[in-house]
Specification:
Blueprint lengths: L10 H44 L5 H19 L3 H17 L1 H8 L5 H11 L7 H12 L4 H15 L4 H9 L3 E6 L5 E6 L2 H20 L1 H4 L1 E4 L2 E4 L8 H15 L24 E2 L2 H4 L7 E3 L4 E2 L1 H10 L17 E2 L6 H11 L15 E4 L9 E2 L3 E4 L1 H9 L3 E4 L5 E4 L5 E4 L29
Antiparallel strand pairs: 1-2, 3-4, 5-6, 6-7, 8-10, 9-11, 12-13, 13-14
Helix pairs in contact: 1-2, 1-3, 2-3, 4-6, 5-6, 5-7, 6-7, 9-11
């Protein structure tokens, strides 16, 4: 006998499905209201930072410090970085204050979150005074289809409504060109360049041509001449076009000379002399080949051990670093400047910025005196820590305070009195005493000599 609850089209089946759909619909509306409530709270945080400095006719830098401080306070509760909170505050203010009809339609369930952020994304291309007119049309269209289906129409709508020519807007957009690094998994990352379309297409086309030339000459390169005889060599280059294109791109960027470089004769000029710099923590066992675990690209993500060994073997700055008070390691100095030995030790200890949640690599940070040197703080390991420029400025110009505890532990206190303990990162290498050797087995007493 068939269970009616499992039979498509059966009454019990349809009733169960109707209940699930109703629950999902109710939850979607409830979730939307919670998300909108969070956005309104973040927007209020942004307005508070603005009000804190508006009456004093403060400079932009002072307002930014107030916003950073508030973002860090909120980020401590949300368990995200202050940079992320500050970005979300800006997004929240744009949506809540600039597109109120969109927020209302989202809250009523007429559109979903994807629609709301799509309207903002496409509408931002228009002057602020045209946002209300744009969202009125956009909401009506979004009510009829999914976000991915209406994206093209909304982009065209924004282009047609814009009072400025496309050429003018392109020139302005080109001023915001940039390169971003997005850490990925398994020792890989995405390098994203935002460039004018024609330049981006040209770069991709040139890389494609070079990749195809390499692939097309594989058969020719597979034969090597030894004396007077041709010796066939097995072709080991089995890379795909995408892989070759990526490898050529890396070669050109890392070792090529910029077109605008002042070469002065035939040698590379100041730009061409610049080489990439990264900070990597390599466990000793990995360096010697006894272990194939990942190595830490400080402030970013793990990298493969083979790459770490290659970089370690090719650098002229490789040094062994020991921390042993009995051997005379520099732990303090009377000067303000941090000696190179202490600097290397601090880079190995801190690995990244020591503000809660920040992962900016130590080589891109500033060494800060926890207790200001001008107020009597000494230049010693127990009073030094790496801070990125953003959080170094916050320590100087906002109500955030910090003190350093034993072992390089930092204790941050927010303007509301909340404390955040920032322990020193786990060392890349740890040593433990060897287990004592087992006691020798007891020797049996000698018996009588055999006859």
């Amino acid at each position: 006998m068939t269970d009616r609850t499992e039979t498509p089209g059966g009454e019990d089946y349809l009733a169960a499905l109707a209940g699930i759909v109703a629950d999902v619909g109710d939850l979607a509306i409830e979730l939307a209201r919670v998300q909108i409530r969070e956005l309104r709270a973040l927007a209020a945080a942004g307005r508070l930072a603005e009000a804190q400095t508006a009456q004093r006719n403060a400079r932009v830098q002072v307002h930014d410090m107030a916003l950073r401080s508030i973002a860090a306070e909120v980020g401590g509760v949300m368990r995200v970085t202050d940079r992320t909170v500050q970005r979300r505050i800006g997004e929240a203010r744009t949506l809540i204050e600039g597109f109120p009809a969109t927020v209302e339609a989202w809250e009523q369930g007429r559109i979903v979150r994807g629609h709301a952020f799509l309207i903002v994304e496409t509408g931002m291309a228009l002057p602020a005074e045209m946002w209300a007119e744009f969202e009125a049309v956009a909401i009506t269209r979004c009510e009829q289809d999914t976000p991915n289906r209406v994206r093209g129409e909304l982009e065209i709508l924004a282009h047609r409504m814009h009072p400025r020519s496309f050429a003018e807007r392109h020139e302005e957009a080109a001023a915001g060109r940039c390169v971003r690094l997005v850490p990925g998994r398994d020792g890989m990352s995405d390098l994203i360049a935002n460039l004018p379309t024609v330049i981006a297409e040209g770069i991709h086309d040139r890389l494609t041509q070079q990749a195809r030339a390499i692939i097309d000459t594989r058969d020719e390169r597979a034969v090597a001449r030894a004396g007077n005889a041709d010796v066939a060599v097995i072709a080991t280059d089995t890379r795909s076009t995408d892989q070759v294109r990526a490898d050529v791109f890396a070669d050109l960027v890392l070792s090529g000379t910029p077109a605008l470089d002042d070469t002065r004769d035939t040698t590379a000029g100041p730009l061409g002399a610049i080489r990439a710099r990264v900070q990597i923590l390599v466990p000793a066992a990995t360096l010697t080949g006894d272990d194939d675990g990942p190595c830490d690209l400080a402030g970013r993500s793990p990298i493969d051990p083979a790459t770490a060994r290659t970089l370690a073997g090719g650098t002229g700055m490789w040094e062994r670093l020991f921390h042993d008070p009995t051997t005379g390691i520099t732990i303090a100095t009377d000067s303000y400047r941090v000696p190179s030995g202490m600097r290397r030790f601090l880079q190995a200890r801190d690995q990244h910025c020591r503000f809660p949640g920040c992962r900016t690599a130590a080589i891109r940070c500033e060494i800060d005196h926890t207790h200001d040197h001008a107020l009597g703080g000494r230049t010693e390991l127990s009073n030094l820590a790496h801070l990125c420029q953003r959080h170094h400025s916050m320590k100087q110009f906002t109500a955030w305070t910090v003190r350093q505890l034993t072992g390089g532990v930092l204790e941050w206190t927010s303007p509301l009195g909340r404390t955040y303990r920032e322990d020193a990162p786990t060392p890349a290498v740890a040593f433990s005493p060897a287990a004592p050797p087992p006691p020798p087995a007891p020797t049996a007493p000698a018996g009588p000599a055999p006859f």
